[in-house]
Write a structure and sequence with these properties.
Layout: H1 2-10, H2 12-30, E1 34-36, H3 48-59, E2 67-71, H4 76-87, E3 92-96, H5 113-119, E4 120-121, E5 124-131, H6 136-147, E6 152-154, H7 156-189, H8 195-213, E7 219-221, H9 222-235, H10 237-253, H11 257-284, H12 293-329, H13 340-348, H14 350-368, E8 372-374, H15 386-398, E9 402-409, H16 413-424, E10 429-433, H17 435-438, H18 450-456, E11 461-468, H19 475-491, E12 497-500, H20 501-535, H21 539-561, E13 565-567, H22 568-596, H23 602-634, H24 638-668, H25 670-673, H26 685-691
Parallel strand pairs: 1-7, 8-13
Antiparallel strand pairs: 2-5, 2-6, 3-5, 4-5, 9-11, 9-12, 10-11
Helix pairs in contact: 1-11, 2-8, 2-12, 6-7, 7-8, 7-9, 7-23, 8-10, 8-12, 9-12, 9-23, 10-11, 10-12, 11-12, 11-20, 11-22, 13-23, 14-21, 14-24, 16-19, 20-21, 20-22, 21-22, 21-24, 22-23, 22-24, 23-24
Length: about 700
Amino acid sequence: MRKFYSNVVKYRKGILIVFLIAAVVCVFLKNMVSVNYDMNDYLPESAKSTLALDLMEQEFEGGIPNTRVMVNDVSIPEALEYKKQLESVKGVTEVTWLDDVADITIPVSVLDANTLKTYYIDDTALFTVTIEEEKRISAVSDIREIIGDENAMSGSAVSTATATTNTVSEIRKITVIAVLFVLIVLILTTTSWAEPLIILIGLGIAILINGGTNMMFGEISFVTNAAGSILQLAVSLDYSVFLIHRFEECRKEQLNEQIAMVDALCKSTTSILSSGLTTVIGFLALVLMQFKIGPDLGLALAKGIAVSLITVFIFMPSLILMAFKILDRTKHQMFMPGFQRFGKAVNRIAVPLVCIFAIIIAPAYLASNANEYYYGSSNIFNEETQLGKDIASIEKVFGQRDTYVLLVPRGDTATETKLSDELHELPEITSIISYVDMAGAEIPLEYLDEDTLAMLMSDDYSRMVLSVDAHYEGEETFELVETIREIAESCYPGTWYLAGEGVSTYDLMDTVTVDMVKVNLAAIAAVFIVLLLTMKSISLPVILVLSIETAIWLNLSCPYFMNQTIFYIAYLIISSIQLGATVDYAILMTDRYKENRQTFQKKEAVWHTISDVTVSILTSGIVLTAVGLLLGYISTNQLLAQLGIFVGRGAIFSLMIVLLILPGLLFLFDKLITRTPKKSREHKPAALKRRHRPALLRR
């Protein structure tokens, strides 16, 4: 290891050039990485709705209707004119309205009431539109120009287009504010004006390289694109800080800066690697999810931490050696206060705090598993946004509606008629567009025009478009999906295919709920094993994992007590993120306690440990809290916002557990952790010397 680091120091100029070139190249590569904003695309390929969508793309030109367009104060002739304009929009493959399911030449008063209320109520028309996936953004923009802001549009295509355009600008804003905040925190917690800039340069290089190397995935999810960089910034901040301060310590013992850097690298490798490895393991647990946003985010975050580690061990030594004279010239006093009084205060109430901790574990766990959830993307935008207002306007007039498409084998019109009749009996189905419904089983196919026939039949399948009076998700919706599937199975055993937003959300719910236990157990087991191997103790991994898991349960129990419905995707992802990102705090506290126990009795060791590590832990924790809350309060995408709130609030709970509860646990289980020295050496000069060094230098 020493030989490797000696070569790193020897070839530092070449290393600097290579990393800078790599960062510049990755800036261009990052712009070539496509971002997917459609959650349904991340369903497993084996999901029934995914198979149905794939088959429909093969058999029919038009896809699933994915947009609802409402136009107010129009007569039927005016509505037909709007329909023509919508059909002319580039990217729109199909527009369905009242004239497709009823004879509009007869008086409206004699039309079927259920059919009429699906498309036309009180001079307000509702069009069902199908937009091509690749042209969603431009098509949605063109439709908005046609209907104006006074009318409304909603649907998965509109949600995806809105998320695409809004998220990019929001993430830029969040990143700028986050960097400025990190700069302020580093100024307050370091002892050189130049040090924060050097740390941010190293982090920036790592983030740029990670963003560019996402090209290997071809495409990343909007969750990864939004959260990946800022989480990498917050989680890997400590590595560079630790290396710089190790270098400063070694310079006091070694006048040659290059040798001091090699010494610093050798001394810090185990600590930084163990911290980084637990984080990587926590993120990699997401790879086990069937819902593919998990692997997408997990691999990108794990790669980001790996890139940060490589940058710290190879690039940062070169950068620090190039700038150490600037560090010396820009020294200043530590702005943060000492935490000796805080350490003594926690020490006095350590045991009562552990008792409170023991009492809240069970309620926190139970409450964290009793939340109400959103599984799909239908609630991503609230009523404060334009899309949220549009959704509310449409639902106020036409209710909560969705469109399903059912494919059945072509040729057996009698069975298809039977299927249609049974579906019509369901109160939630307001209309059906199919061959047997429009033409009747007795009318020969050759009497239908080619466009109508192409919409209803392919060479192998007959298509039934179902208008359903149901929301995109919820218990009633899921029961309806199950009922339709049962009816289809009774008529066409094993040969039918059902698709639609509500259907995809049902499969999404079915998939992610299975993922939960598997991912959490894998993350806990992996981190436990890493801690077991690095700490060579069984009791310590149990204490540390239980501490952070309780912080996670407290975090996830908040929505239950606040009566909030949460996105299951955020709920599922945050467990691994919080465990991986904050278990480092517990490791740092424990390592310092074990070191202090070699000098002090356990009571003194507790408060010395707290005063030693508080600044280091707060630096990382405050940054993670800040970037999470920035994402939470700036993003209009409620899934990303909720994930940000979870990250920020989770960091706060982890800080509280580690700084207030863990010291008491270490005190109470001291005999399991370390041997008690025969007599205290509290007044040993070396101990006093270390105790009065700035906290960040003693990490």
